[in-house]
Amino acid sequence: MSNLCVTGAGTMGRGIAYVAALGGYNVRLHDVSTDNLQNAEKLIRSTMNQSADKGFIDRHKADRALERVTYTTNLEDAVNNTKIVIEAVFELMELKIDVFKQLDRLCDPSTILATNTSTMSPTEIAASTSRPDKCIAMHFFNPVHKMKLIEIVRGLETSDDTVQKVKAVAEKLGKETVEVNEFPGFVTSRMNCLIGNEAMTMLMEGVASARDIDKAMKLGLNHPMGPLELADLVGLDTRLRNMEYLNKTLGEKYRPCPLLIKYVKAGRLGRKSGAGFYDYNDDK
């Protein structure tokens, strides 16, 4: 597996492409939007150069990694002679299924198709293909280049061989893995969404300020980030989609906080929009 394709050049896709290139893969990063690809290339280069300047990675290794990434809007070219494709599009089931149908048609029958999803069913996504045994979920975490974990989630028909090959890919990317039996939200998203939703509810009720809620979780429970900071980093629109899916599949305790819904309607999506539970406009 020397070639690896990532489809979807947003926050997660470009992060996966970054670590894959550092891990020695020839990476094809695909997106339907030229603007998304140009932005991804700019940010990958910036992050790689900053890491080299700070001594986190060797400059020669960084330069070689950048040379291994190609950017394309042509999905057929992106998946050619590639043994694993990682899908990193929005958390919308209809979109993921559509992408997997395209990948199934274009890829060699031996190619593994992995979805980077934090909540959704790899079984349902795999059912749209002719290779459910070669479909799996690889849940990466944001920011990908800093977070060590990948949740490996089996679908109903995922083969042991697929699991072992994907674990080997994760190891080459410098990540550790946990193997999860499919259930909505897996391990981390179920816990994280509950904690974040309760933090939003406390903020809405006036229990404490956003900063004090986050500070309490960091200093009192030793969380590296507060739940509201983390929601802003992930994106409040993404968090809302996750909550809506978990509410639908797991029940009332995952009903999204009304404050989250209000912020998304107002366009306060977190860091990417300049404001969420915190204001980031001064950071620009």
UniProtKB/TrEMBL annotation:
Domain 3-hydroxyacyl-CoA dehydrogenase NAD binding stretches: 5-182
Keywords assigned by UniProt, alphabetized: Oxidoreductase
InterPro entries: 3-OHacyl-CoA_DH, 3-OHacyl-CoA_DH_NAD-bd, 3HC_DH_C, 6-PGluconate_DH-like_C_sf, 6PGD_dom2, NAD(P)-bd_dom_sf
GO molecular function: 3-hydroxybutyryl-CoA dehydrogenase activity
Oxidoreductase listed as a keyword: yes
Pathways involved: Lipid metabolism; butanoate metabolism
EC number: 1.1.1.157
3-hydroxyacyl-CoA dehydrogenase C-terminal domain mapped to chain residues: 185-280
Entry superkingdom: Bacteria
Pfam families xref list: 3HCDH (PF00725), 3HCDH_N (PF02737)
Family: Belongs to the 3-hydroxyacyl-CoA dehydrogenase family.
Family annotation (NCBIfam families): PRK09260.1 (NF006722)
Name of the protein described by the UniProt record: 3-hydroxybutyryl-CoA dehydrogenase
Species this chain originates from: Cohnella kolymensis
